[in-house]
Automatic annotation (TrEMBL):
Ni(2+) binds at residues 87, 89, 93, 133. It catalyses: 1,2-dihydroxy-5-(methylsulfanyl)pent-1-en-3-one + O2 = 3-(methylsulfanyl)propanoate + CO + formate + 2 H(+); 1,2-dihydroxy-5-(methylsulfanyl)pent-1-en-3-one + O2 = 4-methylsulfanyl-2-oxobutanoate + formate + 2 H(+). The keyword Iron applies. Fe(2+) binds at residues 87, 89, 93, 133. Belongs to the acireductone dioxygenase (ARD) family. Pathway: Amino-acid biosynthesis; L-methionine biosynthesis via salvage pathway; L-methionine from S-methyl-5-thio-alpha-D-ribose 1-phosphate: step 5/6. It is found in: Cytoplasm; Nucleus. Its EC number is 1.13.11.54, 1.13.11.53. InterPro entries: ARD, ARD_euk, RmlC-like_jellyroll, RmlC_Cupin_sf. It comes from Rhizopogon vinicolor AM-OR11-026. This is Acireductone dioxygenase. The lineage of its organism: Eukaryota, Fungi, Dikarya, Basidiomycota, Agaricomycotina.
Amino acid sequence: MRAYYFDNLEGDQRLPHDSGVEVSDDILRSIGVLHRHIPIDAEGKYEQEVAAVAKERDYKDQDIISISKEGLGDAYEPMLNAFYNEHMHEEEEIRYLLEGCAFFDVREHSSERWIRCHTGVGDLLVMPPGIYHRFTLDMGNQLKAMRFFKNEPKWVAYNRGQETDANPYRLEYLKSIEVQ
Ligand code: KMT
Ligand code: NI
């Protein structure tokens, strides 16, 4: 995974939009975002490692999401548009990439800048409840990823607005990053 500040220039969301300014794992940690790389090995040891992380964080359920134009047909564009809307969740968002690449953009609260995380196979990314973020494929246009859930597998997103600014999970998130 490589993380950098988004360049804020016009153009296809799937282009790199690389400002050239790197962002370290430490900076990501300071806004509550965790990254780990667990390489996919032929013997399947990665499965145990990923399962151990899920257990540690108290996940009960998981599924696999596949995103491609071929696989999704008419549902492809609306899905990508929904994911690229700036949003938050009341649960952690945890993703482990099995195939393809993707951009997870996370908002750095102090500067309001986007940090773009370019993730690839074997990257595990954890975004805390309440963080503003968005998602897109890159020009490879294809992704398969594991998602973990504390309750039943469902995706509930709240688009950023006045209501999310007052959401208790958002306020809790802001408190959690204050003292770092
Ligand atoms: C989200 O909430 O941003 C997503 O679930 C992105 C797609 S999962 C690879
Ligand atoms: Ni999300």
